Amino acid sequence: MLVVDASQGVEAQTLANVYQAIDNNHEIVPVLNKIDLPAAEPDRVRQQIEDVIGIDASDAVLASAKSGIGIEEVLEAIVTRLPAPKGDPDAPLKAMLVDAWYDPYLGVVLLVRVFDGVLKAGQRIKMMQHGTTHLVDRVGVFLPKNTPVDQLGPGEVGFITAQIKEVAQAAVGDTITDEKRPTAEPLKGFKDVQSVVFCGLFPVDAADFEDLRAAIGKLRLNDASFTFEMESSAALGFGFRCGFLGLLHLEIIQERLSREFNLDLIATAPSVVYKIGKRDGTEIDLHNPADLPDVMQIETISEPWIKATILTPDEYLGGVIKLCQDRRGSQIELSYVGTRALVVYELPLNEVVFDFYDRLKSISKGYASFDYERSRR
């Protein structure tokens, strides 16, 4: 379901997600949400979807989640326009781990989608990418509350619990199969989550260090993409060097530590990891400039780059391009959609993690949208 705001139109984040869906040959049903707002322009947004994304939006569903308009039409479109799932219930179990979260009473709860075979309580399952095995003790679906069922079959989505203690043991995208009768090969496309932005978190009061350690450990239970290790600083004392998926992830974790655990923290400037190639053929990851080896030992230094997609009103395009050029960017694409410009740049991640987003919003008076993905090192 491609849900687009009828007043805002297509955003950069929308493009990033819909192109992934198109690359995977998914059927896409456009839905125009918030049509009850005074500023809604469904005809303009429908045309924009066709021009920018290139899919037919003439039969897009008009809806408003707030007012309840079009809800039946959305459900009908899911049934009639999206293809039914296929699968063989007699084949070896093949299921995808879609999401995982920590429950204080049940342990880690896994949201799974079954492709082949059946998944039921008492079954011993294996995570194919990480090789761990677990005994399933509960199977259910959301209706919308947790409702136990006997088993999940092909095409069905539900949850299981298997006495897993940490979310880190359940990698999203992993393939779940039966330990005794495994499937021949895992589902394609699995990637381990890698932190791309790092910063140090230190307590303002050194006496709060143990509280910070406990708080970070609790957040880690629910967020496997958040990593941390102990770090000490001559100026700031003991703290933790933390890894995040991006700037938004960093801000959320920092805010949760402050609000939920009442901690006063000092955060160092965000940084990225550089790879140092030494003359003896070894490679090291450089987190801190103070750890840079002797210049005579260094053969290469490489930094991570991103592919940034920026959607901006036409009148702010000059300022956006200048910002990208000043940050050592390399332009890949520039196209127009009505009065909006779509700009794709390759940028060093180090130039983006500090204040790029704030500067972009300032230049475009808040109208530009920004999304990025890792491109190369």
In short:
By secondary structure, the chain is α+β, with helices and mostly antiparallel strands. The chain is built from eight helices and 24 strands.
How would you portray this structure in words?
This protein is an alpha+beta fold. It folds into four domains: 2-81, P-loop containing nucleotide triphosphate hydrolases (Rossmann fold, 3-Layer(aba) Sandwich), CATH 3.40.50.300; 94-178, Elongation Factor Tu (Ef-tu), domain 3, CATH 2.40.30; 197-267, 2-Layer Sandwich (Alpha-Beta Plaits), CATH 3.30.70.870; 305-376, Alpha-Beta Plaits, CATH 3.30.70. It is built from eight helices and 24 strands. It has an eight-stranded antiparallel sheet with strand order 8-7-13-4-5-12-9-10, with no helix packed on it. It has a four-stranded antiparallel sheet with strand order 15-16-14-17, with helices on one face.
Fill in the keyword field for this structure.
377 residues; alpha+beta; Rossmann fold; Elongation Factor Tu (Ef-tu), domain 3; Alpha-Beta Plaits; 8-stranded antiparallel beta sheet; 4-stranded antiparallel beta sheet; 8 helices; 24 strands; 23% helix
